[in-house]
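Q: Here's a chain of 102 amino acids. Please give me its 3D structure as tokens.
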Amino acid sequence: MRRDGDQRQGQTRAQRKAELLATIEQQRIDILVAAERWQRTSSSLDAGWQRLKRYRALAYLAGGALLVSGARHPDSLMRIVKRAAAGGLLLGRARQLLRQVR
């Protein structure tokens, strides 16, 4: 009788192990699919970042020139910053409006 009980327990244990292995395999597949989707989605962002990295030295130079100019003429720098901020906000609103129209 004991052997019969051990066999049943062994079967249920083997079934449980098979279920867990199937679950793990499905989770691995889900992770692979999610990683592929994430890579596909972020590829344009990565390409843009790489493009920006090419012009890093130029950006440093322009930033330094703005800092020197700002130190010499703080009022004109503030005016430029305010205009740039207003232009950025205007551009964001225009994009939002265009999305709503479509």
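Q: Can you summarize the key feature?
A: The first helix runs from residue 2 to 54.
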